[in-house]
Design brief:
alpha/beta; single chain
């Protein structure tokens, strides 16, 4: 997005220190495939034939991405744009000439992406971009899931928790919310598939959906034991070899000796491959700060997860994209 700097922007640009936020946004400016994503949204975007002219697609998409990177509600994002020159520069907003889009405009743009299923298309388009640069392979997939918490409070208009969220027990603790089931490329650690369910849906139930169908091997932790025998897996992925971690108790129970040592080495090799699935989880939860769902219902939150993991892929691949 080419634009002429105002006096205030020019003064800001001459400061000596480059903040971490500016560095990150500068990198994202270069690695996001803007033309592809704008072309994806443009057919669905209002043409402005009635009422006031709509704000440009690119500006709205940039603001929407800022919302994902910094885990901001619509109103908080509006305030942040007024407060931060770095965010305004990325979005292409000059307060001397225009105002920041209000929270309702941001809400409407998000609803457009959700209603037209464009968030899933954004993940697909970004992955196609990465695949063309040979950063996303298709020979192996790691399947895993992570729990995203939901507010357990009933202090709302309906006096109830979100009916689409459920609780599940992990270890000795109970968690209320949803699960993000993902399929991750075994070579690069990039996410190619995202499925959102209630937290009480077992990981193994979504294993087949998390595969793209072209992989020769699939890797999973011990929670997926027996996955290769499930009817949907046999029917849809009969040629895929499943490499599933052995349960710790089973390995620990082996008698001391060569067989146990070889088994432990094999499990370490499996774990080295599966460890790549933790990187996108780390980016989404720790770097982007997405640890709790923002909306009610699985559909809206799953739509957001598609964009979050798409943007996480760009963060993971940025070193190669910038080289």
């Amino acid at each position: 997005m080419e634009r002429q700097m105002s006096f205030a922007q020019s003064e800001y640009a001459r400061k000596k220190k480059i903040t971490r936020r500016e560095k990150f946004l500068g990198e994202m400016e270069k690695v996001v495939p803007w033309p592809r994503l704008l072309g994806l949204i443009e057919p669905h975007y209002p043409k402005g034939e009635r009422g006031r002219p709509p704000i440009g697609i690119e500006r709205m998409l940039r603001i929407y991405f800022l919302q994902q990177w910094y885990t901001l509600a619509d109103e908080a994002l509006e305030d942040a744009l007024y407060d931060s020159q770095a965010l305004r520069t990325f979005a292409g907003i000059d307060l001397g000439m225009e105002s920041v889009p209000d929270a309702t405009t941001l809400l409407n743009f998000r609803h457009l992406l959700e209603e037209k299923d464009l968030t899933k298309a954004i993940l697909t388009e970004i992955n196609a971009h990465l695949g063309e640069r040979h950063l996303l392979m298709r020979e192996g997939t790691i399947v895993d899931a992570t729990i995203i918490a939901a507010p357990p409070s009933t202090k709302n208009a309906g006096k109830e928790r979100d009916p689409e969220m459920h609780q599940t027990k992990k270890g000795n603790e109970w968690h209320f919310g949803m699960k993000a089931h993902v399929g991750v490329d075994a070579a690069s650690g990039l996410v190619h598939t995202v499925i959102g369910t209630a937290a009480n849906v077992s990981d193994i139930q979504c294993a087949s959906q998390a595969l793209h169908g072209e992989e020769k091997a699939a890797y999973a932790d011990a929670g997926y034991t027996g996955v290769e025998k499930r009817p949907e897996v046999v029917a849809e992925h009969a040629d895929t070899q499943w490499i599933v971690a052995a349960k710790r108790g089973k390995v620990k129970a082996l008698p001391e000796g060569l067989i146990k040592e070889l088994t432990q080495k094999l499990e370490r090799l499996k774990a080295q491959v599966r460890a790549k699935v933790e990187h996108p989880f780390h980016v989404v939860k720790n770097l982007f700060g997405f640890r709790k769902v923002r909306y009610r219902g699985l559909a809206k939150n799953t739509a957001q997860l598609h964009v979050l993991f798409a943007l996480a892929n760009l963060v993971i691949a940025k070193r190669n994209l910038l080289a």
